[in-house]
Amino acid sequence: MEGTIFAIHRVSTHDGPGLRTTVFLKGCPLRCVWCHNPESWSPDPEPRLRPRDCLDCRACVAACPQRLHRFDDGQHRIDRDACAGCGACATACPTGAVELVGRRASADAIVAEVLHDRELMRRSGGGITLSGGEPLIQPEFAAAILARARDAGLHTAVETSGFAAPAVVERLLPLVDLWLLDWKAAADDHQRLTGVPRAPTERTLAILAAAGASVHLRCPLVPGINDGDAHLAGIAALARDHACIKRIELMPYHRAGVGKADEVGVGDRILAGIPGANEADHARWLAALAAAGCREGLAAVSG
Ligand code: SF4
Ligand code: SF4
Known about the structure:
- By secondary structure, the chain is α/β, with parallel strands linked by helices.
- The chain has 11 helices and 13 strands.
- It is globular, with a radius of gyration of 20 Å.
- The two termini are about 35 Å apart.
- One iron/sulfur cluster binds near residues 66, 68, 78, 83 and 84.
């Protein structure tokens, strides 16, 4: 069983309990305007270009079988629509200015790599987390990784937008110890800010609640964009009404995605000019949750 991933991060401390290895699956149906990982959007391997590292040697121009690299007025561009993701340009580049993001990998190979840190995971109460992108758009691949990790005795977690068919959620339910479910915006703002309606995420939460799953609600918050009191009160109410929600993680906006978006050719689809969240924002969010009746200690700002 093979799928497409774009990164594996070892010794992660923010994606579930203990020390974990997070596997990032490539491809996402959402288009969140604050996305931190826009290189995950395309389901296929793609070139990422860092112009500041480019020597203008044009080895990539010669290497690309489709002749997609161009230099117009001193600007290095890639005609991405016709890109086959072959990686020839990245292989030819002497500086790493162009790199191929994403690769095919087998579930067996991924779990073998994850198990290098098995002892660390065992001692810390950690495990494996699937993230993305949206891992549920490769459901059989995700299931294969999770099943193998389970067989090896690892704790399993999945970070998801919840934008998935019920059958997919139900398929993975028995393989997941902890769901990190994104809760991104008020229902009326969800389509505008993420490109999709919130109803499928609500349906996923209902499935998880009915199954008695363990859920951490992950709430990306962007000052002035999706951090109004009404949304925060909605989060508090959700936690009050769902015993399956064991924790609320507030995920402050930072600008890491802005530069990456330009590098994979989607810079025009990402928020620009918004400062990252600060301590005052964090305090305001926690106060709004408390004012809305959120149990003390349930919500925390995630690093
Ligand atoms: S990945 Fe392949 S097709 Fe795409 S720009 Fe590079 S060499 Fe050309
Ligand atoms: S091969 Fe690399 S350094 Fe040379 S022009 Fe292409 S991106 Fe720039």
